[in-house]
Design goal:
Blueprint (H helix, E strand, L loop, with lengths): L3 H30 L5 H13 L2 H12 L4 H10 L7 H26 L2 H9 L4 H9 L4 H16 L3 H7 L9 H10 L3 H27 L1
Helix pairs in contact: 1-5, 1-8, 1-10, 2-5, 3-9, 5-8, 5-9, 6-7, 8-11, 10-11
Length: 216
């Protein structure tokens, strides 16, 4: 069995999860406590990937990340290459697709924190930024960890959006879900079974961990 697709999937999931937690925690904080006109429109935009099929998201990203797209053109000017059919491209695509799955659990966790903690922090002279790092984050560790696990699992099994943006390049963009699909297409069911079975214990264990974290 070729283990390379499993490695690419794991690498994609780790990088995407790390990137999204760094983005989603402050974004969720702004969505819960920020007050500005049109906030509901911005929140709907963040959650849009939940409503759109992965192939539709992949099609839009295919254009944006391409040489003529805004993001692709900037990337080419700065780094001198293309984003399409590269590992960097599928990281961006997977991050966009998983953004609401990261933001929403963290947002729900922030909403459950006693508002008096923030009020007391402000009374003691902490700035909003200091309150975020010294009060909100320490009281949200379980929720943030649960969000990270969910994003990891979602990224590990990414298919449609990765296929649209990255194709199937061995060692670069050929993730396990694509390898399983190709194995079934070529009637190589033994490899499809082995790759599929590799997901089962990892997914089950992480879901048990999510349940434990959310209970606390």
């Amino acid at each position: 069995m070729d283990l390379l697709p499993l490695y690419v999937s794991a690498k994609l999931a780790v990088i995407t999860t790390s990137l999204l937690i760094l983005i989603s925690a402050p974004l969720a904080y702004l969505l819960v406590y920020g007050k500005w006109p049109g906030k509901f429109l911005f929140e709907a935009l963040v959650n849009l990937p939940i409503a759109l099929p992965p192939t539709v998201i992949g099609f839009y990203l295919l254009y944006l990340l391409g040489p003529q797209g805004y993001v692709g053109a900037i990337w080419r000017e700065v780094f001198g290459g293309t984003l399409l059919f590269t590992f960097s491209g599928i990281v961006i695509a997977t991050a966009v697709y998983n953004l609401p799955f990261s933001v929403q659990p963290i947002k729900a966790t922030f909403e459950k924190i006693d508002p008096r903690l923030r009020e007391n922090a402000y009374v003691l002279g902490l700035s909003p930024v200091a309150t975020f790092f010294r009060v909100m984050i320490p009281n949200s560790i379980n929720g943030i960890a649960a969000a990270a696990i969910l994003v990891f699992l979602h990224s590990l099994g990414a298919f449609g959006v990765v296929l649209m943006v990255g194709g199937s390049i061995s060692g670069e963009t050929r993730v396990a879900s694509i390898a399983i699909y190709e194995a079934v297409e070529t009637m190589n069911y033994s490899e499809a079974w082995l790759l599929s079975l590799a997901f089962l214990p990892v997914s089950y264990f992480l879901l048990l961990l999510v349940n434990r974290l959310t209970r606390h």
